[in-house]
Amino acid sequence: MKNEIHLLYISIAGNTQSFVDDLSDYAEKMHQQDPKNPLIFAKEITDETEFADEEIPYFAFVPTYLDGGNGIDNGVKELMTNVLGEYIAYHHNRELCLGVVGSGNRNFNEQYCLTARRYARDYGFEMIDDYELRGTTKDCERIYANMAERVEEEINV
C-alpha cells in the first residue's frame, strides 16, 4: 500500500466523480515526477454495489444531499448518499477508514459538507478535508498532500 491511496466515493450529480478524476490525474502527475508519490485507486459505491469487506485502509468521499430538515436544529433526511454510509458500516469497514472528505455547496451555509461531518461523528473517524462542488486545482493539491501524509503515517505506525 506504500504507493497507493485508496478511496471510496459516491457521486450523484457527477461533481464527486469529476473531482476524483482530477485528483487521480494529479496523483499520476506527482507519481511521474517522483515514484515515491502514491497513486490513487478509487472505487465508486452505487446502489448496485455488492457489499464487501474492505481489506486496505481508505478514505471516503461524500457529497451532501438533504431532503428535509436543516441538519442542525430540526433534523435531517439524507438523500441519495445512504448507500455509501451503509457500505462503510458493513462489517468492519469503518475501522479501515482513514478519514472522510466532504463536498457541497457553500451557499447552504451550515449544511455545507454536513454528510461528511455526520459520517465522521457517527463512524468515529475524522473529517480530514472538504471542497466545493467540483473542486479546484488547489483543492486537489491540498487534499492529495493531506491523504498522502496520512497514508505515510499509517505505514509508519
Explain what this protein looks like in three dimensions.
This protein is an alpha/beta fold. It has a single domain (2-154), classed as Rossmann fold, CATH 3.40.50.360. The protein contains four helices and five strands. It has helices at residues 15-33, 82-89, 114-123, 137-155, and strands at residues 4-9, 39-44, 58-63, 97-104, 127-132. The protein has a five-stranded parallel β-sheet with strand order 2-1-3-4-5, sandwiched between helices. Helix 1 packs across helix 4 (137-155). The longest helix has 19 residues, at 15-33. The model has no long low-confidence stretch (mean pLDDT 88). This is NrdI protein. InterPro entries: Flavoprotein-like_sf, RNR_NrdI. Pfam families: Flavodoxin_NdrI (PF07972).
Here the CATH topology equals: Rossmann fold
List segments where confidence is low: pLDDT < 50 over at least 5 consecutive residues.
none
Please compute the radius of gyration using only Cα atoms: 15 Å
How many angstroms separate the termini?
A: 14 Å
Which strand order do you get reading across the main beta sheet? 2-1-3-4-5
Mean pLDDT across all residues, rounded?
88
Tally of DSSP helical segments: 4
Looking at CATH, the homologous superfamily is: Flavodoxin domain
The assigned CATH architecture is 3-Layer(aba) Sandwich
Pfam family, one: Flavodoxin_NdrI
GO molecular function: FMN binding
Protein name: NrdI protein
Organism: Pediococcus acidilactici DSM 20284
